[in-house]
Each structure stands twice: as C-alpha cells, then as structure tokens.
Fold each of these.
Amino acid sequence: MPERSPRLAGKVAIVTGAGSSGPGVGNGKAAAVLFAREGAKVLLVDAVRDRAEETLSIIKEEGGEAEVFEANVINADDCRRMVEAAIDRYGRLDVLDNNVGISRRGSVLEISEEDWDFVMAVNVKSIVLCSKYAIPRMIESGGGSIINISSIAGLRAHSSTPYTTSKAAVQGLTMSMAADHGPDGIRVNCIAPGLVYSPMVAPRMDSDLREIRRNAAPLRTEGDSWDIGYTALFLASDESRWINGVTLPVDAGLTSVTPVTYQTLAQQQGVIRN
Ligand SMILES: NC(=O)c1ccc[n+]([C@@H]2O[C@H](COP(=O)([O-])OP(=O)(O)OC[C@H]3O[C@@H](n4cnc5c(N)ncnc54)[C@H](O)[C@@H]3O)[C@@H](O)[C@H]2O)c1
C-alpha cells in the first residue's frame, strides 16, 4: 500500500475555543489535536490561555505544530489580531473552525436582555467577526474551509431559547456564507453535534441521565468530542472538496427519528431498558 501523506499537510488552521471548559477533551480541543496530528499548523485560540495551553501540550507531546493565541472572539480587534497572528507565524490560512459557543437557559419570559445579547454575540457574531478577517487571507492562500459549530439544538427546541435561536442562526449563516464565498474557493459547512458527553455538559450529568441520552438515538452509543473532531477534520480536508453549505448532524441518528414513535417501538422491542 502506498504511504499516505497527512490529510492536512501544508495547511494552516485556526480553532476558536481550542481549550476545554473542564477536565477532558471538548469539541475544539479534539479538532485542534486531530488537525495537528494530520499535519496542520494550528493557532489555538481561547479566551482562557491556560485552557489552550493544555491543548498545546497534547499537540507538542505528539510532535505536532501549534501556538496559543489568547483572544475573546466577540471582540472585532481580537479577531483581526488572531488572523494576523496566524499569517505572521505560519504565512497562510486554510481552515477556520468557529467552535466557540456558550449557553444561557430560559424562555423569552425568563431570559434577561444582557444574557440574550451575550449568547447571540458569542455564538453568532463571533463567527461573523472571525470570518470577516479570515476570508481575505484564505483567498490569498488560494481558498479554504470554514467550519461552523452549531448544535442539534439549532434543529429542534432544546430547553434554551437563546441557545436554539443562536444555533439555528449559525446554520443560516453557514448557507449564506457558502453562497457568498464559494466562488472564491471557500467552503463553509456546519456541524450540528448531538448529545455528546463532553466537559461542557459533564457537570450536569449523572449515570442515569447519560443512559437516557445514550438510548435516545438509534445507535445507542454515547458520543464524545472526538466524534465532532473527526467530522471537523473531514470538512477541513480536501476530501470534502465538493461539500459546501451543509449542516451535518453528528448525533447517532437522534434527529432522524420521530421521538415518541421511536421510543415506543424501542420499548416494545425491549431495546430500551427502563
Ligand atoms: N459539548 C456538547 O455537548 C455540545 C453539543 C452541541 C454543540 N456544542 C457546541 O460545541 C462548541 C464548543 O464545544 P467544546 O466542547 O469545545 O466547549 P468547551 O466549553 O469545552 O470549550 C470551549 C472553549 O471556548 C472558550 N471560549 C468561550 N467563550 C470564548 C470567547 N468569547 N472567546 C474565546 N474563547 C472562548 C472557553 O474558554 C473554552 O475553553 C460550542 O459551539 C457548543 O455550543 C457542544
């Protein structure tokens, strides 16, 4: 068999939210490690430097190339400096993984105006700002791939009105950006992670809840951030060169079923334990 070259050989990537909010590996950290493992030079962007440093130490241990850049991606000047840092250090820009995202709970009756604005800024405006500065540099580099991290909460109501609204907006933004920048050779795609077990959700989970989440989707396996990272790796690579403007649920099939019908059938067949 011919020796294969790394899937992102020669590419430069920015991952926002490249640290994890708790112990373990989150979506941004997994993507950053996999990008570096496949030959990319990676700028690890996080508002909390220590979190990105942790990701850096994993990449360094594996012999990969990366650097930390501290930035708050709701701030336009930070986004501009972030892109310039990637160009200064590595000379080009091919991949932008817009991974940063947060949640605040509440209906329209409950959510404060400040929390609403904050969720929309972190989850949606950050993508606009990072992309605004990245796209011209990608064009200079001959094209690129932008990956926007949404959620299945952008496809279904999910107990947080601002989160669902912002994640649905990310999907609309993805289509619009794909249409606008496809002619420049820039692909823009979106991942909608399902109920993955990650540092972001771990503090709210116990084993019963994990079991319910695991059984909710046809595959009945628990997903983790590596599942999201591998999807980002594929979308970052030239293997997906003809994929543009899509939202890909990565959810063990959760959003492919009608919940009540599916749960009832599964219980009748004895495949869901109660
Ligand atoms: N983990 C899940 O269960 C799940 C499910 C669906 C979607 N998602 C989405 O995945 C993405 C993140 O996943 P993760 O596992 O990497 O999360 P995480 O919370 O573990 O890590 C996110 C990182 O982003 C950083 N960050 C937060 N706000 C920032 C800002 N304004 N500027 C710069 N950095 C900032 C944090 O410091 C943290 O290190 C989010 O968009 C989230 O909505 C996650």
Amino acid sequence: MISMALLELVDLHVEVGGREILRGINLAVNHGEIHVLFGPNGSGKSTLINAIAGNPMVRVTRGKIIFKGKDVTGLPTYERVKMGLGVAFQHPPKIRGVRLGELLQKMASKLAKERDVAKVASAVNMQGYLDREVNVGFSGGEMKRSELLQLLVQSPDFVLLDEPDSGVDIENLAVVANAINQLCEANVKPSMRVKSALLVTHMGHMLKYISADRAHVLFNGKIACSGRPDEILKQIMEHGFERCAECLQKREEA
Ligand SMILES: Nc1ncnc2c1ncn2[C@@H]1O[C@H](COP(=O)(O)OP(=O)(O)OP(=O)(O)O)[C@@H](O)[C@H]1O
Ligand SMILES: [Mg+2]
C-alpha cells in the first residue's frame, strides 16, 4: 500500500551507543502539515530527528521510516536529501575551510540558483556572513539562522527542525519563524500546501508565529500524547511532563 503521508514512522525502535532510546514510535505527517515535538531533556527528540535524517550514529533496530511512500530506513542521508528532506540540527557542525556563500551556491536548487543567494541571506539577517567559514565562530543565534538560510536555499519538501529557536533573541525569533513559515509555504492556501515540517521546541513562543497542526510529547522514547498544539502546550505548562507519563502508563495498561 502506498502511504498518503509525506512522512510516516512505523513502530520505530532506535539505539544509540548500544542503548535503546526510541521504543516504538508511530507518527504520520501529511502533506502541508507542521507537527511540533515536545519532550523533556533526554527524551529522544534529537535521536528521532537523527534517525529520520539517516545519521549513521543512530541505529534503527526495528520498524521503518517511509518518506514519499518509499521505505528509506536503510538509505544514506544524501539519498534522503535528494528525495527532498532537509534538516536543521540542534548543534550544527562547523565546516572549516568552506565559506557559507560557497556552500549555499553548491546546494542551491535550480529554483534558488536563479535568485540571488545574498537576497535570501538578508531575509534571515545573514547577508554579512557569506564570506565566513560555515558556523566557525558564529554565535548560537547566528548558527540557527545559518541553518535556516541553508534550508531556504535548498528548499526541501520536508524539514526537520531541531530547536531552531534555542538561543535566539526576541527580534530574531520572528525572523526564524518567518523563515520556517516560508519553508512550509504558510502563505499558500492550506489545501494547496505540499511542504511539511517536524519542529522540535521547548517553548511556546514559536507557536505564536507558526500555525502548527499537531503536537506530540515524547517521553522516555515513546509518544506519550498527541493533540492540538495549544492544548498540549497548556497541559505541559500546567502539569509538567509527569501528566504525559501518566497518560502513557494508562494507555499501556489498557
Ligand atoms: N552516543 C550516545 N551514547 C549513549 N547515549 C546517548 C548517545 N547519544 C545520545 N544518547 C542519550 O540518548 C538520550 C536521548 O538524547 P537526545 O539528544 O535524543 O535527547 P533530546 O530529547 O533531544 O534532549 P534535549 O531536549 O536535551 O535536546 C539521552 O539520554 C542521551 O544521553
Ligand atoms: Mg535534542
């Protein structure tokens, strides 16, 4: 059967460093949807992003990752990127010897090449950084904007965003959110949208700018709860993650 979802995770189990970190994740993100992933430190959010991106540091031991109807579980990262996957890391790597501008020219899709890379850079306040080595000496917030700039140029169909707002000041938060909205075609009629995102965040600030469709809480390697982003956030703010753990326990006992 061909999946209707753009991204689908089926009973995904993942190990890192010989430890099972994700223990049976089921998740489907449809075309045009933005899903938010909440969860306490160490619950496995970045591990999930790395697994979807195909990072060889994480090992899928059971289940599968389906992207655009194709099982990509065993595919290397570059094949997934060629298929239209993009990722902004929580801790982006520094690339010595490569200037940001050069990298952007290399990764520009046909569409982006016709535009001026510098113009895209100015949309995320990064026009002055194109001559610098990628992420070398960048501040925390600059690194986050550099990641988004790379995604804007790449223009993927599905973006994985691991805490794009962490360490970003209040004014740049709007800049980051605008970039995410642009990536997800927020200005396109919802029924016509095809691009999607999985957004990891700790704070609700982003949700003021981004219209997310669904949120999930990752707790101890499992999805404890899913629902409307505003309701999930309210629950976390009022009761902490413990309430999510109780939900999960009740479901497992049922
Ligand atoms: N190489 C490794 N060896 C052993 N454990 C690891 C390794 N990499 C990650 N882990 C563990 O996996 C767990 C999940 O880590 P992960 O980075 O996915 O958490 P997270 O939900 O993204 O947390 P945060 O909110 O702090 O970013 C953590 O307990 C972490 O220490
Ligand atoms: Mg993380």
